[in-house]
Amino acid sequence: MSDKLSLTLRPAMIHENLIIAEEYNKFKDWTQVRDEVISNNLLQSRTDSTLKTIYGEVSKRLKNLTDEELALMIESDADVKHLVWLAICRQYPFTYQFAVEVLSEYYDRSRYQLYSEDYDAFLNAKAEWHSNLDNITQKSRYKSQQIMFKMLVECGLITKEKEILNQQLSPKLRELISQNNIDDLRLFPGEYV
Questions:
Q1: pLDDT tens for residues 31-54?
Q2: Which residue ranges of the chain lie beneath pLDDT 50?
Q3: Is 110 left (phi over 0), alpha (psi -120 to 50) or beta?
Q4: Most exposed residue of 13, 47, 64, 127, measured as fewest CB within 10 angstroms of its CB?
């Protein structure tokens, strides 16, 4: 593992993920997808720079999914949020570790309530091993915490009151994840056996 863990500083962007996944499933070529999304402003951004930034972030995440997972994203409404979460976690080891070490572990111990302090404690523990996390400002810590909890709500992993929700993946998604890396099931509280 690299000695740097980066924090996710953008929300889940479920709608944008779907648009880009649809384009990928049409073309199966990321260069064509980028050209299509940007030339037609498919994300309906006000500025070209925002469009490029959002496309860059979402496509970077989606490239972590297999073609089968990307196809399932547009075939099954029930799987969209789980697939967006999977893509985020595969892109950001910090988020992946938070999902496994906090969300799923808490859930397994029947501790369903998350608090801001849980995020702070996790970040502090990781900062001991990753110097780049130790140097982030208080403002960046707060922003990353807000975005983490927002993503967890958007992806259906916690309620707005920060209560951890049991996840039930579709049999198809469970099978695809198991084929790729069964450990990824631990990203979903209540799913790992």
A1: 999 999 999 999 999 999 999 999
A2: 1-3
A3: left
A4: 47
